[in-house]
Amino acid sequence: MGVAPYGSVRPWFVASTSLTLLANCSSPQILSSPTLPADSEPSGAAPDADRTRREVTETLSRVERAMAPICEGKCGTVGAAPDLELVASAGTIPSVNGYASLILYRPDGTCVRETEEVRFYCMAHEYGHHLDVAMSERRSRSDWAGELRADALAGCAISSASVSFERLKTRFDSWMSSERARFALACGVDESHPALEWTWQALEVGAGVCRGPRPSKSAILEAVEPVIQKAHEAARSERKRLARTRGNEPCLAPLQ
Ligand SMILES: [Zn+2]
Fold this sequence. Notes:
- Helices cover 55% and strands 8% of the residues.
- A hairpin with a 3-residue loop joins strand 3 (90-96) and strand 4.
- It is globular and about 50 Å long.
- Helix 3 (49-71) crosses helix 5, helix 5 (116-134) crosses helix 6 and helix 8 crosses helix 10 (217-246).
- It is of the alpha+beta class.
- The chain has one domain (6-246).
- It has a four-stranded mixed sheet with strand order 1-3-4-2, with helices on one face.
- The chain is built from ten helices and four strands, in the order ααβαβββααααααα.
- It binds zinc ion.
């Protein structure tokens, strides 16, 4: 999860009075979405801000409705706001532990400009961070495990809201066939997220739990643990292989 230093939170956020009230400055962090390659070059046309905001709000409402049985009345609150200076396409700031989070999104980012399914995935992933981190006593570390837990919770939302896994898979397949996919197995798609194939597996695991008889947050988090282990094992072995080939450590960040 992209944990950005607090300095990366823009002044408008700090200056916004209502949001400042929500900010918990003692433990600031932004948990972000994986870096998704764009389908094509941006058209150059400015995104329609009102339409984007409406689509994001509607998608987030769908995610909240889908996850209501999982958080059992202790779902807290989530708001969303555009942020052109966000490094990732979307990110979550757990603002009041155990209660509220703010989801930030780039209006020109892949998360909101892609297909309906991709937008739902991104918002569900961010909401997954909200449930995993903001709605629990512990504060997750910013590591692959936290990201895959958010993905498993997103998989539950996708399944419960009847979003098309088939159409989402088509997008993931195209991203996973890119040249970078093999390298991502070792180093992740960016500094904080594992390769997309683990994201996909975590989504499927979460969806599987929520198609079953007794879906719960703890059942989802437990079910995704083997995927987390596999992601780490594969990365370790791929890093060794690349290090032998290249003669140096291939990844910037240590395995998290
Ligand atoms: Zn994330």
